Every structure is written in structure tokens, then in C-alpha cells.
Amino acid sequence: MKRFFLILHIFLCAALFVSCGTGNGDIKNVIVLISDGTSVPVLTLSRWYQWGVMDGDARLAVDPYLSGLVKTHSSDAVIGDSAPTSSTYFTGYWSRTGFVSTYPNQTPNDIYTTDPSRAFQPLATVGEAMRILQGKSVGLVVTCEFPHATPADAMSHSGNRSDYAAIGSIMTHNGIDVMFGGGTNYISDAQKEYLKSTGTEYIANDLDAFRGHTGNKLWALFGGAAQPYDIDRDPAETPSLAEMTAKALDMLSRNRKGFFLMVEGSKTDWAAHYHDVISAVTEFLAFDAAVKEAIEFAKKDKNTLVLILADHGTGGISIGGPKTNSNYDKLPLEALIGPLRKIKRTPEGLAQKINSDKIAPENIGAFVEQYTGISDLSEEETASIISAGDYFANDIPDADRRRRPRLETVFRSIISSRTVIAFTTAGHTGEDVFLASYHPKGRIARGLLDGTEINKYLLAELGLTGELDRLTDQIYSPHTSVFKGMKYEIVQDDGSKTVALKVEDGANSLSINGNTNIAVINGKRVELSSVAVYMSDNKTFYLPRNLRGQFP
To answer: Beta-carbon neighbour count of residue 118 at 10 Å?
Structure first.
């Protein structure tokens, strides 16, 4: 029976142009756009909002290219977070919660059989393969901080998605030509110096410099952590996702060999976690504008493949429901979009502005009406704002403030109570997510695909089928294997928080800092074409096999 279904699957793959060897390697450029944490109801809500509130098109830019669904999950759980789900797209392997493009260790709940000898091994990504094997440029454009899970999945490796220091170091040393997003707090002076040494300009919070940049390599970060939600964004300070995408395409397309670009609409997921409808919708529409830029480029270029998808759902969003209104199935369109029509700031933006503008308690009602259109703020709701732990004008002792709800949480609750949108959870959800694709020769990805099939499709179209495993073995071999028979030790410096591998073989020596591509061999500085990744989980360095041959 299993053999029958395998044959049927192969037949369907061929019939539907999914990646079962159908590509011929004639694709030059790949653009992957990921809307983080985006379930299908977000698309539906965004269409209604764009049409009914913005007086725009009744269809999204992504709509003509919708072609199927994607099954996403972790190696040992039906519901995954961004780290393992999007890393499956880039590596072809299922992995565990919190793992960034890294082979999973075994658990009793594994859905698929795993190889325990490979646990914690970094897995080469599509972006790394395109850069190392094909000489293509690499770009990442996001609205979160740059070492966050999805951008890290594209060009970094870790067993812990929260280890921004290690992930950020890998990213700065891994040949990323274009990096636009947030996260000035997460890039060290040493990393900035390294970027400079490679001819890569670094720009922080300077929109004019960003727009005026004419070189081929640029890291431009706006904001200490994530960028603001789109409707809170000051267009004089922070570029939109669409503008960053257009800039990246202009720069990357100068490489005649081609490019890999990953664009993430990062904060739709965050909004859904917080049951923040207006932020979820407007963030997706900002993402959809970036989709339009990508599709227009691809149509003109005629050598570019575009994939648009989510990594998982979040929030369990329901349009209507008895919890919001007992007659929800008879409500007119205005009941859906009316509460969203006058909202000019997200709950996060409202929290920031009420404090920055020093809105006194007696003016809270007028403030809320001005920015949300809510004119019937109750006494209880007003009191909840005044008593919020971070409201500047309350007289709550500092020790008690931390136990009080924050303004952002209070504003979310007030706005949500006026909508007919329901949520089932504050976490991730396990449903299939949307897939859209554009192919210059019509070989689009369609049907129900899983994350590994997305990877196979990309590799086939790039002529890289089978190359990721070979590349992984070449550049991410354990140091115990590479330097077997030699004297080696791992040295940790608690002061600088660095870890180094030191190897000796007779008169020869090698030293390399973890999560960089800089080695010192017999006193000579050598830049590797890939990064030496240190995995603290198993205290192992993963680095190129050919390093052993560097000794005379």
C-alpha cells in the first residue's frame, strides 16, 4: 500500500509541476517571500479591509498567484514555530522547535526517523548553496530584528533561536550582500568592522543614506530591535517593506550570475499572537505591497522564480463567531470593517504616543477617539488605561507597576471588544498555510506540498538537486572528524564571550573563532568561504572538511 501511494505521489508531482525533478536549472534568481504566522483568514480580512476601508482593489497582489497549500510542522510536533518551519524550506529537513537550520536530535515523539549521529549538525541552506556553488548574491529583507528566526533560517544555524549573539555573528560572516531590517542593538562593533573589511557599508537609522546608497553591498538597519508596525511607521524615518524590497532587487540584480532574496513580513505573526486585528491586517497589506514589487521585477526579468507562503498559522483567527456576536452570520460588511475604519495606530503605537505626548487622564477619551474612532469608552476602560503599569501619569508604586497590565495590552482589549474577530489561542496553530508562485516558464508549485517539497522544488529549478547534502558534508563536518588524530581543544573566553577551536599537528597550528569565517593557520589569517559554526548543545565545531588539508 505504501508503495502504491509513493507511486501516486510521484505521478501527482509530475502532473502538477512540483519539484520531483521537473526543473532544468534555468532559473537565475529566486525570491522567497514569507508572511510569518499568517493563516488564510488574514488574507480574507486584508481583502475586505483594502476594499472597504482603503477604497482599493478587491483583490490582493498575491491573489492571481495563489496555487496551493503548504503543510508545515516540526520534526516531533504537528505545530511548529518559525525556526524549524521556515528552515525546512531552506534546508529540506524537518527540525525541532527553536532550531535554526540545524539537524534535530532524536525525541520520543519524532514524526519521521532521524539519524542520531547528525544531531545538531548545521544544514546548508538554499541561500548558502546559491552563493558558494553558483556565485550568486544573497539578500534578506525583514521588519523584525535581523537575527530573528526566519532571516536566521535563511543564512545561519543554531540549536537556540534566541542566541542572537551567535546567530548575528554567523550572519555577518556568511556573505550576505544585502541585509535590510531592524536590530541595531544586535550587531557588535567587531561585526561592523568585519562588514567594512568586505566592502559592505553599514547604515543605522539613516533613511537618506539608505536611499542614496549606490554600492553593491549594504546592511541597513532601522530600530534597535524590530521596526515599527506599518501604520505606526514614520515614513521619514523608516522605509516600508516594499521600498526595502525594491532597493534590494535593484542591488542584487547587478550580479550577472543571479541572486537569492528572502523577504519576510515579520510582524503579522506578532499581531496575531496578541489578538491585534488592525496590526495583522495592515502588516499583511504591507507584505502584499512587497509581493507586488517582487512579481513586477520577475515579470520584467523573465529569469526569476517567486515563491510566496507562510511558515505557520498563529492565533486561530475566526471571522465572526458566537463569542463576538450571536448574530455574527447575519452581520453586514460594515460590522466587519467599521471598527477598523478609523484606527490610525496599533495598540503598541497608542501606548507609545499616550506617554510621549503626556496625555493626561482627563483627555484619554478624546485621545482614544482621535486614534481609534471609539467614542464610547467606558469608565472601566478609562480606569484600566490610567492604572496600566506603564502609564506615565498613574500614582502606582513602582513595585506594583510590574504586576499591572501594560498599556499595549489594555488597548488591544479595548479595540478587540469592538470587533467581530475571534481568536482561539495566543500561540501558533497547525493548519496548512497558503502557497503562491510565479515562474517565468509556467512551472509553478501547486497542490498540497510539505516544507521539504518546497525545498526540492527550489533546488530543481536552480539545478541544485542533491547538492545541499553534499555541501553540508563539505562545509559542516564535526571537528572531531576533520582533525581526527590531531591535538585539538575548545577554548572559551568568558570575558569576550567567544569560543575558539585550536588545533596542533607537529609544527602546524590552526585557530578559528566560533561562528566566524576567520581562521589563523600557521600565523596567517585566512578567510573561509563558509562559517565555522560552534554548537554549544554538543560542544562541537562544524567546519569545512578541507581545513585538514590546509596544513603543509
So the answer is: 16
Query: For the chain, first and last CA: distance in Å?
Result: 56
Q: In terms of domains, do 165 and 292 share one?
A: yes
* 116 part of a folded domain: yes
Residue range(s) defining the domain that contains residue 408:
341-418
With 0-12 / 13-18 / 19 or more C-beta atoms within 10 angstroms meaning exposed / middle / buried, residue 356 is exposed
- What pTM did the predictor assign? 0.94
**Residues 238 and 250 occupy one common structural domain:** yes
Q: Identify whether 332 is part of a domain.
A: no
280 CB contacts (<8 Å, ≥6 apart)?
42, 45, 268, 271, 272, 315, 317
Taking the alpha carbons of 244, 249, 252, 254 in that order, is the dihedral positive or negative? negative
Residue 542 C-beta-side C-alpha neighbours within 13 Å: 28
Nearest to 85 by CA among 77, 113, 94: 94
| Per-residue pLDDT reduced to its tens digit, 214-239 | 999 999 999 999 999 999 999 999 99
Q: Render pLDDT for 57-108 as a digit per residue (tens, 0 to 9).
A: 999 999 999 999 999 999 999 999 999 999 999 999 999 999 999 999 999 9
> 270 and 179, same structural domain?
yes
For residues 276 and 391, membership in a common domain is answered with no
